[in-house]
C-alpha cells in the first residue's frame, strides 16, 4: 500500500501539495484528476522517490519510496528515453534493472501497440514515443504502476490504444495503478477510485462508481463541479 | 528476469560509453595524423619535433574528458533522461561510478593511443635513445609514476566536476554559476591544503637528483589526489541520493 500522511511540498513560493493524506491500495486503479499545476505530478514523483516531502511522510509498503523502486514502474509525463535508443535497446537496458521484467508480455505488446523494435526514440512521433514509454512500463509486473499524464498531446486513436493496452496488462488484485490526467474521458471507465486535486489539496476522493451513482453524473461532470464550485458546494 | 549489480553497472557503463566514442576517435585521429605527418616530413634529429604533436594530442586526450565530465552528467538533465536515471533501483554511487569509469576509459584510451603512436615514431627515429631509456629502470618507473599521477589527477578533476554539478542542481536558479563556483572553490581549497606536496613534486619534476625519492614523492602526490577525489565522490553521491529532486 502507498500511504501519504499529512504531506506538504513547496517549490519556492509555490505550494504543490498542502497537507495531503491519502492511500492507494493494491487491486485498484485510481485516477488523479485535476487541472495543470494541481499537484498530480508531485504526488507521482513523491511515490517514485524523486521528490521528498517537506512535511509529513510517504511510505510504500511501510518503507521510504526510494527503497521500493524495484516495485514501482513510473511513467513520467516528460520524454525520459535517450533519443538515440531503439525500442529494443531501451528494453534491453530497462530489463537489466528489474526482476519483474516480463519478456513475453513485452513481445506481446509490441504488435498490439503497432510498434517495432527498431524504432529510434528521437525519430518517431510523439504518439509512438508515448506508446513506447507505456510499453516499457507495462512489460514489467510491478506491484505499483504510476502513469503521469499518459495521454498528454496524444491523438484520440492512440489514446484508445493506450487505454486498451493498460487494461490488457492489468493484473487485478495484484497491482495498484495510479493514473494522473486532466483528460478524464479516456479512462473514466477504467478507474475504480478517483481523487480530484486542485491547488495542492484533495477536493474529493472516493469510489468512482459510488460517486457516479450518488450524484447521477459522469466523472467529467463531477470534476467540473468540483473545480468550479469547490467540494463544499456540491 | 535475473538481475545483478554487475549487469546493472555494465548497462550503465555501456550506455555512457557510447557518448565518448567520438572523442576517443577524434583523439586517435589527431594523434595518428599529426605524428605521422611530423614523422614523414622530417629526418634525422629534426624528427625530435614529433614531441610537439604528441604533447598537443596528449593535451587533447586530457582536456576532452574534462569537458565530457560536464556534458555526461549535464545532458541527463537537458534530455530529461534524469527521470530515467533517478527512478532506477540503483544507488547514486553506481550511477556516478559508471560515469566515472567511462571518463577514465576515455582518458586512458586517448592517452595510451597517443603514447603508443608517438612511442613507435620515436622508437624508429631514435633507437639509441630509446634503448637507453628502456635500459634504465629509473626512467621506466618515473614515467609509470608520472602517468599514474596523471590518472589520479584527472580522477580528482572528474570527481570535482560531479560534485560541483550536483551541488549546482540543488538550486533552481543560477545552477551553472553555482557549479562553477564550487568547481573553482574545491580547486582553491585543495591547492591550499596540499601545497607542500606540490612544491616537492615540482622539484622532482626537474629531475635534479634522479633519485628513487622523486618517484616516492610523485606517488605520494597521487595518493593524496586519490584520497581527495574519493571524498569529493562520496560527497557527490550523498547529495545525489539525499538532496537531488526533479
Structural class of chain B: mainly alpha
Number of strands of chain A: 9
Strand fraction band of chain A?
A: 25-35%
Task: Indicate the structural class of chain A.
Answer: alpha/beta
Structural description of this entry:
The complex is a heterodimer of chains A (234) and B (246). Chain A has 234 residues and is an alpha/beta fold. Chain A has a single domain, classed as Rossmann fold (3-Layer(aba) Sandwich). In chain A, 32% of the residues lie in helices and 26% in strands. In chain A, the strands form two sheets. In chain A, strands 5-6-7-3-8-9 form a six-stranded mixed sheet, sandwiched between helices. A three-stranded antiparallel sheet of chain A has the order 2-1-4. In chain A, helix 4 runs parallel beside helix 5 (156-169). The radius of gyration of chain A is 17 Å and the shape is globular. The two termini of chain A are 30 Å apart. Chain B is mainly α and 246 residues long. Chain B has helices spanning 5-41, 51-78, 82-87, 92-125, 127-135, 137-168, 175-193, 195-205, 212-242. Chain B is globular and about 60 Å long. In chain B, helix 1 packs parallel to helix 4 (92-125). Chain B folds into two domains: 1-135, no CATH class; 136-246, no CATH class. Chain B contains nine helices and no strands. The A-B interface holds A 11-12, 45, 48-52, 66, 69-70, 72, 74, 76, 78-84, 92-93, 95-103 and B 1-3, 7-8, 10-11, 15, 18, 79-84, 86-90, 172, 241, 245-246.
Amino acid at each position: 500500500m502507498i500511504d501519504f500522511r499529512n504531506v506538504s511540498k513547496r517549490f519556492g513560493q509555490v505550494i504543490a501539495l498542502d497537507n495531503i493524506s491519502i492511500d492507494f491500495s493494491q487491486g485498484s486503479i485510481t485516477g488523479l484528476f485535476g487541472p495543470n499545476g494541481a499537484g498530480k505530478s508531485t504526488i507521482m514523483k513523491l511515490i517514485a522517490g524523486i521528490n521528498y516531502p517537506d512535511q509529513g511522510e510517504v511510505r510504500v509498503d511501510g518503507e521510504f519510496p526510494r527503497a521500493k523502486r524495484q516495485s514501482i514502474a513510473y511513467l513520467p509525463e516528460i520524454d525520459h528515453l535517450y533519443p538515440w535508443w531503439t525500442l529494443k535497446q531501451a528494453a534491453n537496458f530497462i530489463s537489466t534493472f528489474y526482476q519483474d521484467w516480463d519478456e513475453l508480455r513485452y513481445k506481446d505488446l509490441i504488435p498490439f501497440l503497432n510498434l517495432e523494435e527498431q524504432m529510434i526514440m528521437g525519430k518517431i512521433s510523439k504518439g509512438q514515443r508515448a506508446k513506447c514509454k507505456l510499453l516499457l512500463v507495462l512489460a514489467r509486473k510491478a506491484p505499483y504502476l504510476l502513469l503521469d499524464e499518459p495521454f498528454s498531446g496524444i491523438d484520440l486513436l492512440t489514446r484508445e490504444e493506450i487505454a486498451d493496452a493498460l487494461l490488457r496488462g492489468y493484473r487485478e488484485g495484484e497491482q495498484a495503478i495510479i493514473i494522473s490526467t486532466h483528460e478524464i474521458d479516456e479512462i473514466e471507465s477504467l478507474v475504480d477510485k478517483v481523487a480530484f486535486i486542485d491547488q495542492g489539496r484533495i477536493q474529493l476522493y472516493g469510489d468512482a462508481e459510488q460517486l457516479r451513482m450518488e450524484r447521477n453524473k459522469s466523472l467529467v461532470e463531477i470534476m467540473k463541479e468540483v473545480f468550479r464550485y469547490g467540494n463544499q458546494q456540491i | 528476469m535475473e538481475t545483478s549489480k554487475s549487469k546493472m553497472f555494465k548497462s550503465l557503463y555501456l550506455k555512457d560509453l557510447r557518448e565518448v566514442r567520438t572523442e576517443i576517435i577524434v583523439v586517435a585521429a589527431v594523434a595518428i595524423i599529426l605524428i605521422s605527418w611530423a614523422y614523414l616530413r622530417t629526418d634525422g634529429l629534426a624528427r625530435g619535433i614529433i614531441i610537439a604533436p604528441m604533447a598537443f594530442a596528449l593535451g587533447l586526450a586530457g582536456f576532452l574528458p574534462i569537458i565530457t565530465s560536464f556534458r555526461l552528467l549535464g545532458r541527463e538533465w537537458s534530455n530529461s533522461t534524469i527521470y530515467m536515471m533517478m527512478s532506477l533501483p540503483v544507488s547514486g554511487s553506481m550511477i556516478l561510478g559508471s560515469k566515472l569509469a567511462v571518463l577514465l576509459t576515455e582518458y586512458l584510451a586517448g592517452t595510451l593511443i597517443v603514447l603508443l603512436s608517438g612511442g613507435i615514431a620515436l622508437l624508429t627515429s631514435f633507437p639509441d635513445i630509446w634503448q637507453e631509456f628502456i635500459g634504465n629502470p629509473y626512467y621506466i618507473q618515473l614515467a609509470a609514476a608520472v602517468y599514474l599521477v596523471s590518472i589520479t589527477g584527472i580522477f580528482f578533476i572528474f570527481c570535482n566536476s560531479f560534485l560541483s554539478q550536483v551541488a549546482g542542481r540543488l538550486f533552481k536558479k543560477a545552477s551553472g554559476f553555482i557549479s562553477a563556483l564550487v568547481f573553482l572553490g574545491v580547486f582553491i581549497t585543495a591547492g591550499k591544503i596540499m601545497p607542500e606536496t606540490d612544491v616537492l613534486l615540482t622539484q622532482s619534476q626537474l629531475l635534479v637528483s634522479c633519485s628513487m625519492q622523486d618517484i616516492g614523492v610523485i606517488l605520494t602526490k597521487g595518493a593524496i589526489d586519490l584520497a581527495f577525489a574519493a571524498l569529493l565522490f562520496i560527497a557527490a553521491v550523498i547529495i545525489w541520493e539525499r538532496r537531488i529532486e526533479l
